[in-house]
Amino acid sequence: DFLNFIPDSPQLEYTQECKTKNANVLGFCWTSSTEIVFITDQGMEFYQVLPEKRSLKLLKNQSINVNWYMYCPESSVILLSTTVLGNVLQPFYFKSGTMSKLSKFEIELPAAPKSSKLSLSERDIAMATIYGQLYVLYLRHHSRTSNSTGAEVVLYHLPREGSCKRTHILKLNRTGKFALNVVDNLVVVHHQDTETSVVFDIKLKGEFDGSTTIHQFVLPPRSIQPYQIPVAGPASVTSQSPVPCKLYSSSWIVFQPDIIISASEGYLWSLQVKLEPVVNLLLDKGKLMDFLLQRKECKMVILSVCSQMLSEPERGSLSVIATVFDKLNHEYKKYLEAEQSYTMVVEAGLSRSTPAPKRPVRTQAVVDQSDMYTHVLSVFTERKEAPHKFTIAVLMEYIRSLNQVQIAVQHYLYELVIKTLVQHNLFYMLHQFLQYHVLSDSKPLACLLLSLESIYPPAHQLSLDMLKRLSTANDEIVEVLLSKHQVLAALRFIRGIGGHDSISARKFLDAAKQAEDEMLFYTIFRFFEQRNQRLRGSPSFTPGEHCEEHVTFFKQVFGEQALMKPTTL
């Protein structure tokens, strides 16, 4: 029976019967807001609902003997159990009014069944999307290998095209009653007898036997966090303590991907995985990073792990720190490359027939230099609790890791290195880093070096050398020299590159006047008089140069007769 909920229209029921005679209806699935599939023990009927006409239109009919069915709304796939034993599964994919038959496959039962009756139960099968791929999960209560005890979960990868293959086996190492959920791309298996759950991550390295990867659980078994049921009733009664909920109850029903229903208590929960406690359960930092980088809400936990491994009492070795940095920067580089490819495609332009490319999604696994600087490295250097050699080694290790994957290092990381070296008076090391270009040239870095001149005089020349190497930085070199009142040095530099005919006289005269050195002012003033004579045939400044105050100052100090007289050829 169907009923339209359309404003201002009569709510009249309409009915659609199965086309197949004498069929038992097993259920129905809405594959879209206007498409529905009837599943019977004799097949499927795919209908389009026409609300305005209050009728249904048959789109496709499929005859097949069905024991039970399962639907995955996320991927719009219906799975049918067929044959006498029930272990041959036939998937169908639905999209925009079409029904596609995918390759059927057989579930390997633990042992040859003794009788020809249904051997594969619906409760032992689940369908879920893990890392963007659809899997059929089979809870096999007894392993097929004689030397292995305990149940296991077998994962069959179900692609849109091609055959379904067994790809992963999750070892539970126990027997009893189980239930499955999939949360944040993790397979969570609940065990009723021990009232614990175990977590599997199929992205992590397992034992490969040539066709299938065998996984052990990532974390030790843990119970779901207790839930308190508030006591309902009048205000005078509700002051009572909440009642703890019975976890792992026999009345629990699970739905994919993350739903748990307690039928006896009338509660529905969605299961979540908390990442913070994982940090203390996975002590191998490399494996921990592999695990965290695949999780949706991972960034702040990753940054917290990085801070911890640089601090007492959990300070890690440099090799461990390097491994963590490399894993982070590998993800960072992958995102940068994807972003670059996207930009190139967009800039190249596309024909109308080509679908527009999708911009890469920046997940929380992308921990960039700004994140590391703000939350980890700058805080680490400010604490000053570690030996300075270790501090510098950590900073250089992060820079090495960035260089290794060819990510341009931001100047603020180099500045952090320089400031740390200066704090500990390691000027010889600073000189070596600059001399051998361990720290890459940049304008902000050159300016920082200039500011260090008072405590380390050679920094001034190192800065100028750096600015000269940055061939686009001629203006900055002049500005820097003028700000240091090195007016003659600035003039010599600008003459050396042949730019002295176009520079601003006023800018140089301002700097010379601020230096409060009369002979310097005289020299600079005379230089520009000579330039004016050479370029315009007269030593006088034009009104557009706005040098009137400097001409007046020159007359006051040296007298009007000191002004250069025009010369004629």
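(the above was protein one; protein two follows)
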Amino acid sequence: MEDEYKVLASHHNEAMKDFELEGTWWLPGKEGEPLPGTLSFTQDGSQLKVYGPLHPLEEATSNGLQPMTTRTVTERVVYGTTRQDQRVTLFEVHGHYLPGMPSSEETYRPGLILVGDHAASETFTEVQVEIEHLHDWAAVPDLVKFRDRQFCFNVTQKEALSAQSGDDVIKVLTSLLGNSNGITVNFKQHSMISVATPSGGEWREIFEEKVRPLHDLMILSLGRPLAMDALYLRPDAPGEEKGVLCDAYLDVLRPVSRPGSIFSYSAPTLYTAADHDLGEVVSNWYSSYASIRPILTLLLNPYYAPFIYGEHRFASIFQAVEALHKEFFEGRDMEKAQHSARVEGVIGRLSEEELPAETIDWAKRVLTGRNDKPLWRQAQEVVESTGPLGEHILEAVPKISRMAASARTGVSHGGANSMNSSDRYWLGEVLLWVLRAKILTEIGIPGMYEKTLTRDRYLHAIDQIRS
């Protein structure tokens, strides 16, 4: 039981907070020529400032002139060691320098900062990420318990979830991280998503293909922007050796945390692990992700963007409706034979009017290619497919599909009768609820339509459209 009263020390990069590290920096193969400099990470981005030329000077040309044209470079890797002896690796380091002139100061921008090791590989085999509200969303068990009039805690790392997608192993891990000043101990429970991929991948691929899917699922479930609070990457290591799990920093969007529980009556939450088995949901999500990714790219734009204008927001949401319709519904207005007969009927009538042949040919080309459903019907079919939710919407706002299609046309093509910003906002809000509930239902989560009907924000949006 002794371990039950220990706390893990941590250099946890909580909330990707701004930092500044002084140290020495060098290019691969130039370990003997380090330069002093400062690495910083702020809301404005990451920056490496070195005091001297990072690149060797080029010799003068045959005519004795020095090359004075600024050269733009992207260094694959830059290594560093901080004053605290932390090993740092910088990837995709962009900058400019004068190859023929010694400089006292140069500035570069790294794409990725890795603190904890000098990575020998650009391939990573594991990523861990802490996302806002993960603990509650994944129903992670508490490691701190109150019994016998005292608080007891267990520092053994626990798995709240383990699922597999192909060769990837997805886990939700939780542990206590803290520090002590000798007489006072502070600790906090942290929960992380871990994705281990034996085949590995470069850092952008890991971020897009391993982190983004679960970030998307959480945003879809909770209906709010979610900050990425911490990120770790494990570089591949030679042989059987396991690489070091390093703190990672990159210029991700860091939305301001929104106060309030995800379980409150006014929260836009639709799904948490308390509603349905998370392991099953995650497995279904990964197996479906490739097909629904185009929908999510459009649907979740308003959540990922730090700021978005109303027209952009609505256009993105309605385009998500169109993308969802394309994935789950028949896009043709009629069967091919029926459509051909319809076109021939129209062309026959036009021929009777003795119109010029080129006009009739043009009409036939246009009509033959237009067997798609109109926008309002696409929206109508999506709404109707949501069972009790769709029934509630159509009873409250019978013409919502035509209103939404008209608003979309107004955004795309303008016109004197474009919908005002307020009405367009609330239409988009209702469509967001429809799309979220539809996608979560499609991956096997029951009761999403019924739950939407209990959400205060959904009901308020309906009231705003009706008023």
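Reviewer note on protein two: Residues 1-11 have pLDDT under 50 and may be disordered.
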